[in-house]
Design goal:
There is one protein chain. The protein has about 500 residues and is α+β, with helices and mostly antiparallel strands. It has 4 domains: about 90 residues, no CATH class; about 120 residues, no CATH class; about 170 residues, D-amino Acid Aminotransferase, Chain A, domain 1, CATH 3.30.470.20; about 70 residues, Photosystem II 12 kDa extrinsic protein (DNA polymerase, domain 1), CATH 1.10.150. Helices cover about 35% and strands about 20% of the residues. It has 15 helices and 21 strands. The strands form 4 sheets. Strands 1, 2, 3, 4, 5, 6 and 7 form a 7-stranded mixed β-sheet that branches. Strands 8-13-9-10-11-12 form a 6-stranded antiparallel β-sheet, sandwiched between helices. α9 crosses α11. The longest helix has 22 residues. The protein is globular.
């Protein structure tokens, strides 16, 4: 009888899996453990395994693959675990992402067009930023589950206000507040949180409210300088039934080792909240589409593409990952904005959209990917039978990349409007910038031009020009996507060639 692979799940507090019924059919043995249960010297791990129809405490040899579900912000433990189980056999090397690091990674890619303007908090520049944007969101650089998120505002009368992460705008009654209580767990856990929210909102609509900018800055500095805070432009998001909402997209590696979108949902915020972390409802994206004035299936496809591109980009910078989730807000023109990318996605809320197949897929996929890793190495460049899979993935990502570009060139995003501040940045490298006018006669015919003329194309030197001549002999270039066939031409360089508007595919 074939022995099941042993998959380890690293957690903070080891116990039996609540969702075991969803993954029990996958023919894999599960060991749930934490770092304290590892005997590094003797290479033994204490944890919980499903035996005799119950979860029992066991001493086990190291698993073949480890799925990290512990909340960690560095790769130290994952690196050490790889020495125990093998290189590339531990995924989710870090799960507590630093927002500033993620912002820095995305700003160097096409995804930058979907990231709100973001800065590190510095006391000497904050008021200048606030004067320019009028409203700014402050949030810790490290994830805090929505805690310590603030909205700063400079009113037309030059009053300076700071609102908490839960409520803004108007005071509401205790009864109204109870009726809009965020869903945070069981009933007992709601009581102290509810009392705190009641006291905070009913007694103090704004945490800071002053006309003295120095006093305002001093009070903000008391908490914002205790740890690294980010300052982000405030974008008024679309509302459904007078409540803002977000779209969460789960991205996971599948049984073939490829990134895929496996689930979506929408979190509905409180009526007076500017964030959705403490949601009052969870709805399916299908429900939101029927109520939204701006959101469309095309926007959902775009967000899926951005999520997949983000997953691959972040993994290449941070290390081996197996899942993330991307939260989008939708502005009042229908444009999606990346609110946050999470390295440890909460899965339990997916059950509330009442789709058993989606829920099952979301929980099963990491185990399926772990089983893939049992027999395969983790690498961006596979060989042999897996080379076809990676080529397929690369081709898919290249198509997504150009799909995003074409979406950005939609006239909705190019239209200049004095009432819309949230268009892409207008600079020389921006996709939103108007292309240079180029006559057809001055275009370089990539399928017939001599080597000397091909070298006038950005990023094309003598060696690549010769390669173009060889490639076009076998198969002509028909689009900018085809440029990725050229060795050394990736997404960034292909994008530069496209925006130069010098190439003709006639």
């Amino acid at each position: 009888m074939k022995k099941n692979p042993l998959i380890g799940i690293l957690v903070h507090k080891p116990k039996g899996l609540k969702y075991f019924d969803l993954v029990s059919s996958l023919q894999a043995d599960i060991l749930v453990f934490n770092a304290k249960g590892i005997d590094w010297k003797n290479k033994r791990i204490q944890g919980y395994a499903w035996q005799n129809n119950q979860w029992e405490k066991v001493i086990s040899p190291p698993p073949q693959v480890i799925y990290n579900r512990s909340y960690i912000s560095h790769k130290g433990l994952s690196n050490r675990l790889e020495k125990l189980v093998g290189k590339g056999k531990v995924f989710n090397c870090m799960t507590r992402f630093d927002k500033w690091t993620i912002n820095d990674i995305l700003q160097k890619t096409i995804m930058s067009h979907f990231v709100p303007d973001t800065f590190l908090f510095k006391s000497h520049t904050f008021l200048k930023l606030l004067s320019s944007y009028r409203k700014l969101v402050l949030k810790p650089s490290k994830g805090t589950l929505g805690k310590q998120v603030y909205l700063a505002e400079q009113t037309p009368e030059n009053e300076y206000r700071l609102y908490s992460n839960i409520f803004t705008e108007k005071a509401i009654s205790t009864n109204e507040l109870r009726g809009n209580m965020p869903t945070l767990g069981n009933e007992c856990s709601k009581i102290p949180i509810l009392n705190a929210l009641i006291n905070e909102k009913a007694n103090n609509p704004a945490k800071i409210n002053t006309s003295n900018k120095d006093e305002f800055l001093l009070k903000i500095g008391q908490f914002a300088q205790s740890e690294r805070f980010l300052v982000q432009e405030y974008i008024p998001f679309e509302k459904v039934e007078e409540k803002i909402y977000d779209i969460r997209i789960y991205v996971q590696k599948n049984e073939r080792g490829l990134w895929d979108t496996t689930a979506m949902l929408s979190r509905i915020g409180s009526p007076t909240s500017f964030i959705t972390n403490h949601s009052t409802e969870i709805k399916s994206v299908k429900e939101i589409l029927t109520h939204s004035s701006h959101l469309s299936d095309k926007d959902i496809s775009l967000m899926k593409g951005i999520s997949l591109l983000s997953a691959r980009t972040i993994e290449r910078k941070l290390g081996h990952l197996g899942e993330i989730c991307v939260d989008f807000g939708i502005d009042q023109t229908g444009r999606p904005w990346i609110i946050e990318i999470n390295g440890k996605p909460q899965k339990h809320i997916i059950k509330r959209i009442n789709d058993i197949e989606v829920t099952k897929s979301l929980y099963q996929m990491p185990i399926k990917y772990a089983k893939f890793l049992v027999k395969n190495k983790h690498s961006h460049k596979f060989s042999g039978k897996n080379a076809t899979l990676i080529n397929f993935q690369d081709t898919h990502f290249n198509r997504l990349y150009f799909y995003v570009i074409s979406y950005l060139k939609d006239e909705r995003y190019l239209a200049e409007s004095n009432q819309n501040k949230y268009k892409p940045k207008d600079n020389n490298n921006s996709i939103s910038s108007k292309p240079k006018s180029t006559s057809h006669q001055s275009l370089i015919l990539i399928n017939s031009a001599p080597i000397e003329q091909l070298q006038k194309i950005p990023n094309i030197g003598p060696k690549r020009a010769k390669e173009i001549v060889l490639l076009r002999t076998n198969k002509p270039f028909t689009s900018y996507e085809c440029l990725l066939r050229i060795k050394g031409i990736g997404e960034t360089r292909a994008y530069a060639i496209k925006t130069a508007q010098l190439v003709s595919f006639d």
